[in-house]
Design brief:
The complex is a heterodimer. By secondary structure, chain A is mainly α. Helix content of chain A is 66%, strand content 5%. In chain B, a hairpin with a 6-residue loop joins strand 1 and strand 2. Classes of the chains: A mainly alpha, B alpha/beta.
Chain lengths: 391, 248
């Protein structure tokens, strides 16, 4: 039997017996991320929906000065409430999202036909207040426009002279693409899955083996070191890929239960999504396994390796952040960059956009080359004398 | 047969450079037990690591059955059975699986592997622990397993780094008997130790190392004669020039 295969089988057997590794690979890694994701999206969607439908509760100071405005607001599903004594403080303390203040001279300005002022007191840095604030602003503006139009009509003018340009909006987003924006983080969760799946083995087969003092006897066997390393990398990759596969399948299943339809979105998570995602993730799992092994080989102890690898975990988030902050047009070269290629592929697949087979092939080949280089570098490190010495 | 010629190995760089092995030469013959005796830090482990090609000497030559370790390290390792200073087992595997793993890495056929493993299990009296996971093994059980896996390929030459370290009296006696039986089988047995009685009781030849150099290479009797001390321990202390770091 090939000695790499001997090492591979032994590492797999040994690690399958380790309950912690198995739980990480088969449960936590693949399931946690999609589950958190679904929970997050669920709460987000339900909150948005309930906010849009609920009556807007609005504290108003000086409501008696503008009875018409108040009546119009009430008709638009706004609940008028007594204003707090100090509206500014109430907003700052987040007791109220937005407070409306109507001055005593409102009626005087109104009667003269001058702009009558109302004050909206809000905190733009409060994510939660943004919805109600926008809603109130729109309501007041609509009221102002209606009144303006009526005044023009009373003077015998057409209200349309105030609208020299009319905008007709034609949104080209499809339900899939709107979902895609929300799911920009998803590829990172898959990559993270592969990372968690391979982590235990990457550490166990290098720093762990050295710490348990079993590396030196192992290297005394008549097998070239690169073959031993090959078996270890194969085992780490196998665990990482298992995690990725489970995580994609889990997401494909759980994704069906997300309330995306309620906000007019659909996700495409069919067989093609699963197959293409797995295809581009395969070489990435190998690349991550090689990088993890490389980093763990440098570590002096199990603990040190864990620390290094936890830091390494943040590297794959970089293209994710870049792509979500700067939504640049997908270009062919992006498929060639490991991590970014997977990111682009997964997002496009989910949005229902076409990903040509050639792009999938480019992504696969380029990431595979990167994985091969990482393996070669790791093999070089493995030749070093210091690597084997436990003490 | 293991031949070491003028071995040099230093660690560190520049001013901090320390010569761990500084011109060691000796010959370990087949059918003999050769003891590498020296205080802690004398360079025994580094010398042995160069022998089983874990380290590359800065200069000098290692020949195992006439094969140069620098030229064909894999062939050299094939001819060696090694019990290193580090002897960790895989604790989630049974003793049998630990042994079989190394046998397969040597490329031994299943049937041969089975015969060798069973023979070693009898010789080392470890049949009762063969199918237990090695987690929680006593020190003696661990050493037995480590020896069995080191010898499963039936090597002509056996290198053991402080084989009795951490063993109790009974296990130590068993170990000594085992080393003698290997000698009787015509193997070349080379082991390191810092324990005088052990070396005196077992060895056909004693190589005394101190500060990276060979200070004596004789039979036990010749050693006594050379130093003029009737007691081997006194002879040893006289040879290394200090009694620092000397245990037992």
């Amino acid at each position: 039997m090939n000695s790499s295969l001997v090492v591979f089988l032994k590492e797999v057997r040994e690690n399958i017996r380790d309950r912690r590794t198995v739980i990480n690979t088969l449960l936590v890694g693949p399931l946690m991320a999609p589950l958190i994701f679904v929970l997050l999206i669920n709460t987000l969607v339900t909150r948005e929906l309930s906010k849009a439908e609920k009556p807007l509760s609005l504290p108003v100071a000086g409501a008696q000065y503008a009875p018409n405005l108040i009546a119009a607001l009430k008709q638009s599903n706004v609940e008028i409430k007594e204003a707090p004594a100090d509206p500014e403080a109430a907003v700052r303390n987040q007791d109220a999202d937005v407070v409306l203040r109507i001055g005593a001279d409102f009626a005087k300005a109104w009667d003269k036909g001058e702009p009558a002022q109302v004050e909206m007191i809000y905190d733009a840095s409060q994510q939660d207040a943004r919805g109600p604030t926008e809603r109130l602003k729109k309501l007041i503006e609509a009221y102002a426009q209606r009144t303006g139009a009526l005044r023009l009509l009373a003077r015998g003018l057409s209200p349309s002279i105030l609208k020299p340009v009319a905008i007709a909006e034609r949104d080209q987003s499809t339900p899939q693409s709107r979902a895609g924006l929300m799911f920009a983080m998803l590829p990172y969760f898959f990559i993270l899955g592969g990372f968690i799946g391979g982590m235990a083995l990457a550490i166990d087969t290098t720093a762990g083996e050295r710490e348990r003092q079993s590396l030196e006897p192992l290297l005394a066997n008549p097998v070239p070191r690169w073959k031993i390393l090959g078996g270890k990398l194969m085992a780490t990759t196998a665990f990482a890929i298992t995690t990725v596969l489970l995580s994609i399948l889990a997401f494909a299943v759980v994704g069906q239960f997300m309330p995306t339809a309620k906000i007019g979105m659909t996700l495409t998570l069919g067989a093609r999504f699963v197959a293409a995602t797995l295809f581009v993730m395969l070489p990435l799992a190998a690349l991550l396994a090689a990088l993890q092994t490389l980093v763990a080989a440098f570590a002096k102890s199990y603990r040190e390796a864990q620390t290094y690898l936890s830091l390494l975990m943040f590297v794959p988030i970089i293209p994710t952040l870049l792509l979500s902050v700067m939504p640049i047009k997908t270009q062919l070269w992006m498929y060639a960059v490991p991590l970014m290629g997977q990111q682009v592929t997964i997002i496009r697949l989910m949005r229902g956009d076409a990903v040509p087979d050639s792009a999938l092939a480019i992504s696969f080949v380029c990431t595979a080359i990167a994985a091969f280089i990482a393996c070669a570098i790791t093999a070089r490190i493995y030749r070093s004398e210091r690597l084997a010495i436990s003490a | 047969m293991i031949e070491v010629k003028n071995l040099h190995k230093a660690f560190g760089k520049g001013a901090k450079r320390v010569a761990a092995v500084d011109g060691v030469s000796f010959l370990a013959r087949d059918g003999e037990i050769t003891g590498l005796l020296g205080p802690n830090g004398a360079g025994k482990t580094t010398t042995l690591r160069c022998l089983y090609t874990l380290m590359q000497p800065d200069s000098g030559q290692v020949l195992v059955d006439g094969i140069d370790a620098a030229v064909d390290p894999v062939a050299v390792r094939r001819r060696l059975g090694v019990l290193p200073d580090a002897r960790g087992l895989y604790k989630r595997l049974t003793a049998r699986e630990n042994i079989d793993y190394f046998a397969r890495l040597h490329g031994i056929e299943s049937q041969t592997m089975h015969q060798r493993r069973e023979a070693l299990a009898d010789a080392l009296e470890m049949r009762d622990i063969l199918d237990r996971r090695t987690e929680g093994f006593s020190q003696g059980q661990r050493v037995k397993t480590a020896i069995a896996r080191a010898l499963v390929h039936d090597p002509k030459n056996v290198i053991l780094d402080e084989p009795t370290n951490g063993l109790d009296v009974m296990s130590t006696r068993a170990m000594r008997a085992f080393l003698k039986s290997m000698k009787a089988e015509g193997r070349c047995v080379l082991f390191s130790s810092h324990i005088m009685q052990e070396v005196a009781a077992l060895c056909d030849r004693i190589v005394v190392i101190a500060r990276g150099r060979v200070v004596a290479d004789e039979s036990p009797d010749a050693l006594r004669a050379q130093t003029g001390e009737a007691n081997l321990e006194d002879a040893f202390v006289k040879l290394i020039g200090t009694d620092e770091g000397l245990a037992a």
